[in-house]
Design goal:
By secondary structure, this protein is α+β, with helices and mostly antiparallel strands. It has a single domain, classed as Aminopeptidase (3-Layer(aba) Sandwich). It has 4 helices and 7 strands. Strands 1-2-3-4-5-7-6 form a 7-stranded mixed sheet, sandwiched between helices. The radius of gyration is 16 Å and the shape is globular. The model has no long low-confidence stretch (mean pLDDT 88).
């Protein structure tokens, strides 16, 4: 899955460049943070072609709040949905215990998304066997022909994990 870099750069405040990993792009912030953003094929949603969305702080440096990062991420996601009618899955990384913060930031970024009415956003939190809270969101276009099956599968999967 390739992203149209030119289309992203028309709407993003930071210049986005291709990244070595297919389906990913990269950009540097004003504070020198190198971010890699992209989509990998997922097998967690079987009723549609689903892609897991990832934001990687390549050098693991502390990143101050930056509205231009938000605008660039939104431009990348917007291009993903302009290029195809697939499902996007966002799972918050849990390795450092900051998954709740990541989830709030992601929700904040897309709460003001100008095209939000064209999409279904479904979010949940699930406590795993080690008592760690996990956060997941799926986003699909309203005109996705598999929308009903995607929603049903998402809720079935959530129920499966919460009933354990």
């Amino acid at each position: 899955m390739e992203l149209n870099i030119e289309a992203i750069n028309r709407n993003a405040p930071y210049e986005v460049r291709p990244f070595v990993k297919e389906g990913f792009v990269t950009f540097s912030t004003d504070s020198g943070i190198l971010l890699s953003v992209g989509f990998e094929k997922s097998d967690l949603i079987l009723s549609d072609d689903a892609y897991e969305f990832a934001i990687v702080n390549v050098e693991h440096k502390a990143s101050p709040r930056d509205t231009k990062v938000k605008e660039t991420i939104v431009a990348i996601v917007d291009e993903f949905f302009n290029s195809n009618n697939k499902t996007m899955l966002y799972l918050c990384e849990t390795i450092d215990g900051k998954q709740a913060l990541r989830n709030r930031l992601f929700q904040d970024w897309f709460s003001g998304y100008s095209k939000q009415g064209n999409f279904v956003f479904l979010s949940t939190s699930i406590r795993d066997a080690e008592n760690v809270m996990n956060y997941a969101t799926i986003i699909a276009r309203n005109d996705n022909p598999n929308l009903e099956a995607i929603i049903s599968e998402f809720y079935s999967t959530v129920k499966l994990f919460t009933d354990k």
